[in-house]
Amino acid sequence: MAEADAPENTAGPAHQPENHPEHQNTHGPAHRTECRTEYRMAELAGLAGITVRTLRFYRERKLIPPPRREGRIAWYDDHHLARLRTISALLERGHTLNGIAELAEAFDNGRDVADLLGLGAPTEETPVRLTPEELADRFGPDATPENLAASMDLGYLGTDGEQIVHISRGLLDASAALVQEGIPLSAVLAAGRRVRDHADALAEIFTDVLLTHAPQADPTRLRPLARRVVEAELSLAMDRQLGRWRTS
Predict the structure, then answer these.
(1) What domain count does the chain have?
(2) What is the DSSP letter of 22?
(3) What is the model's pTM?
(4) In angstroms, rounded to a whole number, what is the distance separating the alpha carbons of residues 39 and 37?
(5) Residue 117 CB contacts under 8 Å (≥ 6 apart), including other chains
(6) Spatial contact of 58 and 84, defined as CB atoms under 8 Å apart
(7) Bridge-partner residues for 33, per DSSP?
(8) Which residues form the domain of 45?
(9) How many CA atoms lie less than 13 Å away from 156 in the CB half-sphere?
(10) Pair type for strands 73-77 and 36-39
(11) In this structure, is residue 238 part of a structural domain?
(12) Quick check: helix, strand or coil at residue 126?
């Protein structure tokens, strides 16, 4: 496919002067600038295990971000390499290019991890870093752009470079287990949004109790007690609901 912009090198060496035509270069090592490694098109394609033609096609489909340009020379970096490896991994898992393009758009426009963590890292939950292909492995065909966007909107997922950060290993494992039981991820996320509303209300109740009646107490010591009350009440409520379901 023909490029609409200036021609890119398909087999060039490290950094050349701006007026040096790319198509006259021979293959060589990567270029390092400001502690970053940058690659010409042919070298990037070779590292990613694809052809230059495929790389051009991915770029035209906007599956990867544009390269940095220096005169007539286009420089790609490790973020491009990671994205290409992700595309290959998702294709191997049965995703279509259209689906990958939509995932890439959701990924690029997603919440930054700093916004996800807000006031700071969770005190009792452990965030988990995942590649897009690891997320696809956990949720299979349910790893859709719509579910990815819903997870980001809910505050479960954020992005950090080419990685995805889930706010809680416990929530991630529970969501994956529910999906494996046959519950659609969209339903799991919808339930999670409802649970979030109730959890915020419960947290407000216990915070008010602590601030009103034990303002000098250590919250980290009393917090597990609140959690124990919620777990016990939820267990009893599940007994009641399941009992009604069995007798209906």
Answers:
(1) 3
(2) G
(3) 0.67
(4) 7
(5) 127, 158, 167
(6) yes
(7) 36
(8) 22-86
(9) 24
(10) antiparallel
(11) yes
(12) coil
